[in-house]
């Protein structure tokens, strides 16, 4: 039996693994930058020419010899990890794992030129023409039947200028989708997606000669309100956010049984959800992203975590979990390098922990927002819906009185703030209850059936009001409805509705009237009075609901 069979790889595999897998410009750019990182380059220079629709990426890494270019770069699936290494000579953790990321370079331009050299070596490289490659794929050629083209004289001249002692130059000519974004927004993308400097301070990325720093995200920093971070985590971006209104540690309120899950990073919130839209980038919205060894591995990593959608719309951040790639044999990343494998046990453990952590962040976020007189999370149960709405109303009404210059005025506002929340709620309930009772009496009892005490009370109030209006020469009436129920107090209404009811307590009605009037006239009640008012109003609400049910049943 013949025993010399071997794999014959069709060039069609390039489409499956590379050209059809990478569609995002920043992903393609990221693969080139990651290659520079793995090559121990101190610097990466990205030059973009929008007018001529070209881009070049040059680094000063170790470069490639002729053997390296053929047997490593052009060998699909080759990775330095196959040698047993997990770090570069400088000690950087390798980003590359699958050996297919280089194929991303094929996806974004008509012609891709690669030129490289090692220290003391000759310049090597070639050209990938995608039209020629498409024809080779159409002809079903295998990898041994296709050769790269020869770089142009212009490319050689460019490499002589840019590559000094060593390094690699990649030139993209006739970019497929052109350069849609301005340079400042491309700088933002790079600043958002790469945090290599957190590991190696000597690694620098330049876009058209400008060093990319956290300063590219200054507009995001300016809208950041609160920050939660792990103990000891530092990032130049966080320095831009100083000062913020509140800072706290990333933690969980309810400890859960979990293995050791090391991570670092931060979560931050902005003033408005619209601030998470990166200005100038139509499809870029910030979230809580996952980074591994300085490289973005999954955007909006927390999107599958069950949490309050309201709070989540304000949050962004970075979670760094370097042990997801510990140099071992376990590969937790998708082929596109744009996500992690959700069924991995370690990742599932992290997500369970982060769900609790995000719940703690949400609770603190609500407290911080309330503290700073802003709307919180309506889904949070720390406040009743009534109190939360009362708070929103108070903050809205008091806003024009607040001033940075007059500290005393602000102290006065804070003094009445929390009392106002319960008082506004209670008074609102009183107002509704009173007017429901008035409508009930007006429609359920003929005028002739009103008690004499009720009629006398209405007459006294009506005459007093008429006298006051006449004294100020106020023409016309001030009330929409003028029947007797609209000229009496709350306790008068209760007595009339429940006359003859042995369960009705006269003292309770009087107590409610006193508390209601105190709220209406002074706002601030003692804690005991506030509690009593809430209880009395709740009792009235229940009585009214019963009366309305009786009325409904009688009509059926």
Strand residue percentage: 5-15%
Order of helices and strands: HHEEHEEHHEHEEHEHEEEEHEHHHHHHH
Number of helices: 16
Strand order of the largest sheet: 4-3-5-2-1-6-7
Structural class: alpha+beta
The major β-sheet equals:
7 strands, mixed
The separation of the N and C termini measures 95 Å
Poorly predicted residue ranges: none
Oligomeric state of shown chains: single chain
Q: Helix share of residues?
A: 40-55%
Mean of all residue-level pLDDT scores? 81
Overall radius of gyration: 36 Å
The overall strand count is 13
Number of domains: 3
In one word, what is the shape? Answer: elongated
Tell me what you see in this structure:
31% of the residues are buried. This protein has 16 helices and 13 strands. Helices cover 41% and strands 13% of the residues. It folds into 3 domains: 12-180, Histidine kinase-like ATPase, C-terminal domain (Heat Shock Protein 90); 216-371, no CATH class; 385-555, no CATH class. β1 (43-49) and β2 form a beta hairpin. With 556 residues, it is of the alpha+beta class. The chain has helices spanning 12-19, 25-38, 66-73, 130-138, 153-162, 183-193, 218-222, 236-240, 309-312, 345-371, 385-398, 407-444, 452-471, 490-497, 506-522, 527-555; strands at residues 43-49, 54-59, 109-117, 124-129, 167-175, 204-207, 210-211, 224-229, 246-249, 264-270, 288-292, 295-298, 315-320. It is elongated. Strands 4-3-5-2-1-6-7 form a 7-stranded mixed beta sheet, sandwiched between helices. The model has no long low-confidence stretch (mean pLDDT 81). The longest helix is centred in the C-terminal third of the chain and has 38 residues, at 407-444.
């Amino acid at each position: 039996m013949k025993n010399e069979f071997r794999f014959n790889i069709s060039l069609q595999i390039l489409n499956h693994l590379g050209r059809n897998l990478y569609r995002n410009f920043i992903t393609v750019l990221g693969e080139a930058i990651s290659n520079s990182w793995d090559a121990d380059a101190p610097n990466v220079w990205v030059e973009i020419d929008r007018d001529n629709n070209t881009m070049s990426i040059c680094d000063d890494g170790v470069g490639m010899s002729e053997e390296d270019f053929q047997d490593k770069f052009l060998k699909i699936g080759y990775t330095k990890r196959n040698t047993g290494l997990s770090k570069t000579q400088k000690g950087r953790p390798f980003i590359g794992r699958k050996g297919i990321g280089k194929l991303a370079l094929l996806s974004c331009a008509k012609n891709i030129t690669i030129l490289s050299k090692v220290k003391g070596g000759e310049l090597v490289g070639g050209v990938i023409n995608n039209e020629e490659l498409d024809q080779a794929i159409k002809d079903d050629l295998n990898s041994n039947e296709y050769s790269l083209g020869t770089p142009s004289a212009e490319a050689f001249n460019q490499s002589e200028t840019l590559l000094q002692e060593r390094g690699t130059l990649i030139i993209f000519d006739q970019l497929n989708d052109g350069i849609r974004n301005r340079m400042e927004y491309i700088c933002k993308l790079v600043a958002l997606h790469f945090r290599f400097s957190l590991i190696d301070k000597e690694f620098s990325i330049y876009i058209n000669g400008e060093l990319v720093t956290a300063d590219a995200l200054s507009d995001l920093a300016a809208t950041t309100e609160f920050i939660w971070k792990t103990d000891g985590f530092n990032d130049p971006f966080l320095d831009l956010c100083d000062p913020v209104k509140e800072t706290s540690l990333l933690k969980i309120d309810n400890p859960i049984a979990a293995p050791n899950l090391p991570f670092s990073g931060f979560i931050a919130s902005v003033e408005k959800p619209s601030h998470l839209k990166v200005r100038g980038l139509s499809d870029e919205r910030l979230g809580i992203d996952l980074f591994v060894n300085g490289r973005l591995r999954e955007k909006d990593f927390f999107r599958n975590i069950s949490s309050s959608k309201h709070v989540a719309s304000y949050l962004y951040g970075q979670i760094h979990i370097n042990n997801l790639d510990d140099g071992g044999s376990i590969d937790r990343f998708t082929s596109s390098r744009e996500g992690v494998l959700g069924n991995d046990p370690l990742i599932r453990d992290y997500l369970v922990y982060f769900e609790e952590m995000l719940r703690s962040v949400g609770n603190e976020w609500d407290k911080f927002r309330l503290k700073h007189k802003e709307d919180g999370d309506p889904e949070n149960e720390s406040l009743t819906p009534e109190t939360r709405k009362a708070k929103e109303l108070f903050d809205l009404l008091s806003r024009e009185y607040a001033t940075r210059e007059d500290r005393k005025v602000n102290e006065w506002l804070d003094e009445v703030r929390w009392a106002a929340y319960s008082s506004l709620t209670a008074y609102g309930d009183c107002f509704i209850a009173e007017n429901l009772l008035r409508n009930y009496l007006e429609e359920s009892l003929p005028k002739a059936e009103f008690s004499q005490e009720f009629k006398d009370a209405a007459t006294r109030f009506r005459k007093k009001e008429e006298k006051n209006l006449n004294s100020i020469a106020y023409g016309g009436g001030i009330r929409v409805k003028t029947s007797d129920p609209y000229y009496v107090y709350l306790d008068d209404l209760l007595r009339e509705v429940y006359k003859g009811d042995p369960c009705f307590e006269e003292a309770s009605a009087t107590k409610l009237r006193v508390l209601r009037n105190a709220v209406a006239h002074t706002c601030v009640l003692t804690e005991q009075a506030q509690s009593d008012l809430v209880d009395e109003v709740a009792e009235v609400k229940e009585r009214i609901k019963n009366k309305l049910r009786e009325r409904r049943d009688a009509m059926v």
